[in-house]
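chain and backbone:
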Amino acid sequence: MADSNSFFATWSPRLLSVLRIVVALLFMQHGSQKLFNVPPGPPGFFPAPLFSLFGIAGILELVGGLFILLGLFTRPVAFLLSGEMAVAYFMNHAPKGFWPVLNGGELAALYCFVFLYFSVAGGGRWSLDYQLRRRS
């Protein structure tokens, strides 16, 4: 019987990378929707003016999401995105009520803490950060 510790030691960094990639792909959709209305938002939704709060959030989500997807500068970018999601939660959701399930803030809170985790854990085995660190 194989040692279960070696199984976890082998797969934990890889699954961290899978989580990072999936979260980044989902997160980037929010940015592309804000900036380009792709995928199309609800009726009346339009791309945000670039230098508005909504536009800056879109840039952070699209470009920051791309960096997270690639696993490049994962820790500082994830910390920045965690902060963006905390601000989004407290500006847009918390004023509507205490419970995230009722104020529509579940996704912002979840992204906030997942990015905070990435800011400490890094990008995992399948990241450019890992490849660059390995070469030096």
Remarks:
- The longest helix spans residues 4-36.
- Residues 4-135 form one domain.
- The chain has one domain: 4-135.
